[in-house]
Amino acid sequence: MSVIGRHALGLLEGPGxxxxxxxxxxxxxxxxxxxxxxAPLRARLGADVxxxxxxxxxLLHCYARFGLDGIATxxxxxxxxxxxxTDLVLIRDHVGTRTLFHARAGxxxxxxxxxxxxxxxxxxxxxxxxxxxxxxxxxxxxxxRETLLRDISEVLPGRCVRLHDxxxxxxxxxxxxxxxxxxxxxxxxxxxxxxxLEDAVARRLPAGEPVGVLxxxxxxxSLVTALAAKLHDQRVRSYSISFGGATPNELAxxxxxxxxxxxxxxxxxxxxxxxxxxxxxTVSLLDCPVGDPLTVPNLMLAEAVAAxxxxxxxxxxxxxPVFGGPKNLPxxxxxxxRDDPAPDARASAYLDSYRKCYSDLPVLLSPDVxxxxxxxxxxxxxxxxxxxQGRMTGLLNQLLHTNLRTKxxxxxxxxxxxxxxxxxxxxxxxxxxxxxxxxxFRVPGRYKLAGTSEKWxxxxxxxxxxxxxxxxxxxxxxxxxxxxxxxGPLRELGHDLLLGSSARARGLFREDTIRSWLRGDGAxxxxxxxxxxxxxxxxLWLRSFDVGP
Length: 549
Hints:
Layout: E1 2-4, E2 7-9, E3 19-24, E4 27-35, H1 38-45, H2 55-66, H3 68-73, E5 76-84, E6 87-92, E7 101-105, E8 108-112, H4 115-119, H5 130-139, E9 152-154, E10 159-163, E11 169-173, H6 186-204, E12 211-214, H7 219-231, E13 237-242, H8 251-261, E14 264-269, H9 272-284, H10 295-307, E15 312-314, H11 319-323, H12 329-336, H13 345-353, H14 361-364, H15 367-372, H16 395-421, E16 426-428, H17 434-440, H18 445-448, E17 449-450, E18 453-454, H19 456-462, H20 468-472, H21 482-487, H22 491-498, H23 501-506, H24 511-519, H25 528-544
Parallel strand pairs: 12-13, 12-15, 13-14, 15-16
Antiparallel strand pairs: 1-2, 3-4, 4-5, 5-6, 6-10, 7-8, 7-9, 10-11, 17-18
Helix pairs in contact: 1-2, 6-7, 6-17, 6-19, 7-8, 9-10, 9-25, 10-16, 12-13, 22-24
């Protein structure tokens, strides 16, 4: 621990690769920093920088010399806290791979890449933040600055937050995707994209080390696998999930890709009993619960990769939020039949399209909680700015921008980061590369959604790398047997947690609604499984963080 003026900067035990303190001139910093363009940054900085300095120190040099323009030119995964005079400066990477939280108590500020660490700050008297509960039940993650803990906020991606000694703060944006009209042909766009994809994968490959790839068999993970196999100096190892039994899966597709790309392939079977036994542990690793039933399988995959002696694992996350997957179709259909001219009608439709608990909130939340939320800002405020004419003019780009800055930053990337870091891995996502994203917003919408073909330009860019069966098949997604788990190995745990004394004392939910969902009442093909998963994940997280009523 180092004390610099009014700031104490140090490292905490736990998962992640936090390093420091680093000192450059009058600035001192700690953080979690992995840079993919370290060599060009060193060349730009010149002789002042040691050729073997740590990535965190290199990023601090960029900030010291060029300010936020220097941060904007960095490419990587980073969260950096800088003591700058009496100010504490917090910087989060462009897309939000690494997290950074801050809070004020008394006359001081505290910040951490770990929400749990900040929660333990003795001077902070925090508790449950009810508006965030409502947001989580709507989105299955938290889409903005708010956290589930009162008075603790998250730094948004692509932002620099300066915390001042007098308790005020200022925020600057150093990067945001911009829509640019680019009239090049589809072939030219595909060629440019291919070059960027190859560069993004190449920069994330660990030189002289084995690399793993999480392979589902969809176009996104398949193209990353193919490019890694083409570009890496060692044979790639690929990993897929099976839930066993008669659950529909994509193993035939992932096996086809593994054979085509000559990877060393491994299938990990995840039984429901294992999910039940490890769910609480997995939820406790997350700064925000994620209503994604793949969390335990994701952790088990990371552990399997680490057990094989691999330090870096690539994934195909990012294809949908960056290039336009099927999640946008309900919104596009809504727009065709829209008869409500109200500015927030589109935002309300977006919330409905998630198909989580948004429409159930009046019967799910207890009367006391609903009363407490009466004056809370409407949920539409979280996403409406992205869905209005402004930075993005076309509807598809507005949806992609929304998905990138909400689900991409606050669900996909942070979940992968936390669960891989807990296993001693670095999870890297080439499709979330900044240059790839910048190019995606230059591609005309008709090339991203071409008729009924989603992510068309992405498929064209890699068509020669993969079998047509993989490139042209419709997205089906992994079928996770949530309902089977909740009526089987998770049944007892679900009942005990959601109807137990702790949940009743917290008073968040109406017991009759929870009981009805647990019985599967009211629907021929119930969707209560996904909703119960949200509520169960929330309860486990609150217990892990010891958040009382």
